[in-house]
Amino acid sequence: MPAWAPAYDATCAAWHRRWLQVQPATLALGRARTRGTGSPTTTRLTLAQRFAILGQKIEAAETRAEEAEAENKKIKQTLLERDQEISSLQHKLALAEEELEKTEGKVKELKGAAEEGDTHRTAGENLARKVQLLEEELDKAEKDLKETTEKLRQVDVKAEHFERAVQRAEQERDEWEKKHGDAVEKYQQSKRELDEVVAQMESLVRTPPGSCGSAMCAMC
Fold it and tell me: CA 23, CA 31: separation in Å to the nearest integer?
């Protein structure tokens, strides 16, 4: 029941009680005037007019009551439509919230995948930089090896052509041989490190993320 319905019913009841109160007073007034004037015809006309007016008022009140009842029905229908509209909007809101939760879940998954991709990309970039450094060191070691080999060859030639400088040449040759051995060792060490890094990169490409256990893949 709407909130205004009790007030409307109370108003109608008040009008009815007022009419019951007015009717006896009107009849008494008519009888008093009849006694005072002594003209029954005039009194009857007066009472008839008053009853006609009172009837018109009652009809007007009934008309207003009917109009109020019709308006009440319209308001009830409007409230019903509003309730249905609210229920529909609440259902749509629930569906929208559910869709929002699904979308947030997808966003979290995409963020996680992006972060994982960033981690692998960073690891690959670090390995690539290390490979570049090792390649530079390997190139330098190869250059040093070539220079040392050339020096050693020159020393050997000098040793063959200058017998009187054999001792000095042999000493110089020994020094260059030592340098040559150091260069060879450095070259081999750089080559081994490069091979290890290349193997790690190949393992990173072949192995699914997170399944390897090596130290280089700690960020997987």
Answer: 13
What are 145-171's pLDDT values in tens digits?
A: 788 778 777 766 766 666 665 577 677
The answer to whether the CB of 163 falls within 8 A of the CB of 195 is no
What is the dihedral sign for C-alpha 126, 127, 132, 135? positive
DSSP string, 169-199: HHHHHHHHHHHHHHHHHHHHHHHHHHHHHHH
Q: Which of 144, 139, 154, 138 is nearest to 183 (CA)?
A: 144
56 vs 62: CA distance, rounded Å: 10
Altogether, the residues listed in the chain come to a count of: 220
Task: Indicate left, alpha or beta for 162 from its phi (over 0: left) and psi (-120 to 50: alpha).
Answer: beta
Residue 80: its H or E element: helix 40-161
Structure confidence by residue, pLDDT tens digits, 42-93: 555 576 777 777 777 878 888 888 888 888 888 888 888 888 888 888 888 8
- Residues with Cβ within 8 Å of residue 188, at least 6 apart in sequence: none
Please, is 141 exposed, middle or buried when counting C-beta atoms within 10 Å of its C-beta (0-12, 13-18, 19+)? Answer: buried
